[in-house]
Amino acid sequence: MKAKDLKVLRKKFLRVDRIGSPLDDSKIAGQLNDILSGPWKLKYFAGPSAPIDSLLDLFERNMGDFYRKSSWGLDLVQKADDLAHRRARHLVVYDDNEHMAAYCHYQYDYDDEEHPERVVFYVYELQIEEKYQRLGLGTKLMKCMEYLAQSADLDSVLLTVFFENTSAMAFYQNLGYEVDVSSPSKFNQREDYEILFKKVDAL
Questions:
Q1: DSSP readout, 93-124?
Q2: Residue boundaries of the structural domains of the chain
Q3: Contact at 8 Å (CB) between 103 and 91?
Q4: What is the pLDDT of residues 105-148, one digit of tens each?
Q5: What mean pLDDT do residues 80-96 have?
Q6: pTM
Q7: Cβ distance 106 to 123 under 8 Å?
Q8: 141 vs 35: CA distance, rounded Å
Q9: CATH homologous superfamily for the domain 3-199
Q10: How far is residue 21's CA from residue 45's CA, in Å, rounded to a whole number?
């Protein structure tokens, strides 16, 4: 990429990296609540202010075995640091008893740190309590993520899925996610995961 193009890309990244809570914008908050519907309450946390212990607990219960089986291994100290990162953003769903039902960890990122080509909306985690799974909440939350990408004027949502996690792979594929050009499989590399993406239309 030429220096001029990198400068434009950097400017775009800095713009989206300044975006704060979507719930502070009445139009965006209203749309998110319309998408979610039902007996749910949304809260937003920037990384350092997030309820890290609760997020980490749900992550370990849902994903611990997948990580232990992977080449990455399970490093909860590192994961806690990731959740608390200054650029981490969390949309957390609570039920009518104020218990956490689900959360999404997302960030505005470059598609590749060393050779960036795009600024993308990256969903790092979508975690749902077991009793609230298979009720459509995950689909609604991904629609929320896609709307947030659109509201930031970004056209791509990316995420990572373990091959071992076949139910998650099928879930995202059913939502229209495809293998991204940056995924290891595109370079004939054998990894435990695939990077998926979905193009979203401008608002």
A1: EE-TTS-EEEEEEEEEEES-SSS---EEEEEE
A2: 3-199
A3: yes
A4: 999 999 988 889 999 999 999 999 999 999 999 999 999 999 99
A5: 97
A6: 0.96
A7: yes
A8: 8
A9: Gcn5-related N-acetyltransferase (GNAT) (3.40.630.30)
A10: 8
